[in-house]
Amino acid sequence: LDKMVQKEGVYQHEKSEDFEAYLAAVGLPWVARKAAANTSPTIEISKDGEEWSLSIKTAIMSNVVKFVIGKEFEEKAPIIGKVQKALSTMEGERLVITTQTEKGEMRRTFTFTDSGFTMEMHALTLDVRCK
């Protein structure tokens, strides 16, 4: 019997790869990039029935997104504050949130393991990635 990897919980950011370059490519201003790159967010993932909640908290901001897998939802982009349409899907042990932005399609993939999770961000149109 395969056991499902735990997805709900509170996670502490440990490291980033190419995050600041990704933020530059998607058009975030220099000051906002520096602030975001120097934060260590706490991420909380919870589920109530069919509704998931993704909460990201740092010293300078917090953002909560609620969604149902497979249903389109609106998400307010952190820092820039624009409301964008998004869709979440589950692909095995991965939660994928795809957002349509003015810079093209952005995809965040949360890959869960027994020791935590990795989040990869990919701006498909611009072909830039970070973890």
Topology:
Blueprint (H helix, E strand, L loop, with lengths): L8 E4 L6 H7 L4 H8 L4 E7 L2 E7 L4 E7 L3 E5 L6 E9 L2 E8 L2 E10 L2 E8 L4 E3 L1
Antiparallel strand pairs: 1-2, 2-3, 3-4, 5-6, 6-7, 7-8, 8-9, 9-10
Helix pairs in contact: 1-2
Mean pLDDT, to the nearest integer, reads 87
Order of helices and strands: EHHEEEEEEEEE
Number of helices: 2
Largest sheet: 6 strands, antiparallel
Given helix and strand content, the structural type is: mainly beta
- Total beta strands: 10
Low-pLDDT runs: none
- Could you say which overall geometry the principal axes of the C-alpha atoms support? globular
Spatial strand sequence of the major β-sheet: 5-6-7-8-9-10
In angstroms, what separates the terminal alpha carbons?
31 Å
Proportion of residues in extended strands: over 45%
Radius of gyration: 14 Å
Query: What's the oligomerization state?
Result: single chain
